[in-house]
Queue: 4 jobs
Job 1
Amino acid sequence: MSFRSLERYESQKAAYDNYKAWKLLSPDAKQALYDAIPGIATGRAKPVLSAGFIIPFNATGTIVTYIETKKIIDATQGSAVGAAVATALRTALSGQFFATATGTTPVIISSPRYKFAKLSFTRRNTPVARVSRITKRSYKKPTSDTISMPFGGSSMSEDFDVAVAEIKTKASGANAWANASAGEIKQTYKFTPEGI
């Protein structure tokens, strides 16, 4: 062991001792420490959701087929954590979901196992000072809000890749969301295809 390693051990010993003490705690005690983190219970984004309908990509036939979902972001978000992210995501997906099933005798399918295509918006905010519940050392960590919403075709014949391109490039779309990053605030997005 080198002298540098010995010196590093001395500087890290207090944090290591705190870590060992934390490992000996019961699961309930560890959970209590986690729950005591400022804002941990109220700082998570919980968007208001409502029921709606998605048209699957590359659907065939002349009768419009919809798949029902209860995970459409509601138009009214209030002032809850992540409300701005949810509103921006709903706006970006305008035209790719439907509040009602329209058309001549539309077919509505309820399929709990169906894996919708999804778009996620994430906003990573300015880092805030924290104290580790495990090592008791100070550090900075950014808070972040991530919200996802299912989407489908604007019509029965629309392809996933075409829809993604439109969502990215529209005025209030995904690219506009990412380009609004400023300073320490970073905004990103992620598309997930159907069935994954």
Job 2
Amino acid sequence: MKKIAAFLIAAVSISAAVWAGASKIPAKIMTYDMGKYKEAELGSGKLRIKKMLKGDLEVKDFQVMMYPRRGIVGLCYKPAFGKERMLMDAQARKVIRDAYDQYLQDYSEKKLDRKRTKFVKCYGVARTMVEWGPMQYSAYADPRLEIGYMFVGKSPYFVLKLCHCDSDQKKGDVAIKYAGMYLYFTRDQMKDFIDAIQEDVVALSVESQKVSVYEALNDDTYAEDDGDYVESPDEATTISTKSKGKKKKAAEAEPAEDENADYAEE
């Protein structure tokens, strides 16, 4: 419980921080070990990614996962090859939620510029971590996240731009580079993502596991095995009471029970 409370306090503290510009974003996301809890799915939905050759937008599934051992949330999706996930701490999640709120307002007030055919960065920046690989998440980098919108034809999309960057990781003499990614969302698609990264949802994913463990440990049922009960032989005249270090006669230890009497419950 203390770890959950500390996590929520950290999230609130970060949420209250004032962003003074791009130079203020951290070099890496903040991780926090919440305990030995299982990874949990917070939500799922659809997004769009550009096809490599044609450049058309292709619909992809996404899952939002909670990783308690690092205290971070991941947006998991599959590009053209392999798989990839964008990892977010509480600070990055707040920037994304605030950006979406502003986008909805601009959308409803018709403030989105139809003449802008390229990505418009206007809703904030944050630090993320990206992991990717053909079969496993074997490579990683810490790209800057830029948030804005883009028109594709007549349709506007809320866009998360993961900028290309160098990685701290090296494989032999080879330096790892992240090529970057644009993630496109309609309003409804983005709502599925936003709902999954609300802080109460994130905290509940771990708290619910804590309750389940507590209930299992305090379950008053007993485990039955396949063996028969082993009863004392009828002719036994003494019963060992190791806690008292002495023996009693069976007849003296227990009075005879009335078979017709009710059970006495504690």
Job 3
Amino acid sequence: MAANGQVIGRSEMDSSECARDNGIGSVRTNAADARLDARSADALRT
């Protein structure tokens, strides 16, 4: 979430293991120093 409260990323289901691995690699390359605020539907219920 950005400083202004706007969501700037969210998870998605990948079509294959290769697509998943490519997505992980992209995040590691392009957002290596980004802060992670992990939220899930399960976490929001508690």
Job 4
Amino acid sequence: MALTIKKCSISDMVARPGGLFCDEQQVSGIILADRSVKLDPATFTKTILDGLIQQDKFIGTLKYFSAEDADVDPNYTESSTGESTKNTLGIKKWNFMFNKGNCFQNEINKLDKSERYSIFIVYQDGSILGQLMKDGRVKGFNVKTFVGIKKVKTAAEGGGSTLRVDLLPDAMKYWQGQSALVESDEIDFTELNPVTGLSVDITSPLVASATSTKVLVTNQCADSKVSGLTTPANWKIRRNGVLEAVTAVTEVNGLYTFTHAALVANDKISFEIYDGGYAVYVLDTDYYAGKSSEEKVA
């Protein structure tokens, strides 16, 4: 690959602001992606996206209660004759507020002081805004994330959690002048949900020779049962630390019956999601993760 001599850093590009331009849609939410994630418009599929989510490299659309800009303005220097020089592009920052309770706060606090992520902006029409790379791929704008102090309802205005998102200086050139709006013919990004944590509770006694076990699956952060996770290949039984197949799954109102090899006295048993080698179950645009506590066979 050849190198090109860079002669000057002063922009001499010609603006072409005439013609017709599309107005931007209202923002619906944000997606956080690992900074290594780069989407190729030519090869992007829902299957590729599912794999990124299963690898914990893509957090589905976070829909906030409210948002406010917290931008740092560009820095200028003025000469003695009043001529201005622009020294920095400024920094784009937001405070996103969520009114979702303490369990959500426990999860989002894992993003505090994180330098792992980039951000895609999600619009109401299902498209996303990211930075356009020189090779034609699209990635999120690199950010740092911080979690503010949780507020509780002590007055009419209510409480909630705050996620602060700051674009990095190296992302500002893309934000200001090299962004891309992309959409998929397979998925509406407003419908792409973050991974839901599950409570997986063994409800039937574990006894020797038993070949089936009842397990209750509920939402980790709400008193609601979760249905539809009935693909046997996406579940595993862990016996004495070793994964084994679940051969059949039935479910009625969140109560699952797992069929498996016969239990043996003193075995240590647990059940967990294991979808294609990952701890995340894919169900259309919903994603689930969870495992039970380990119990001993009588």
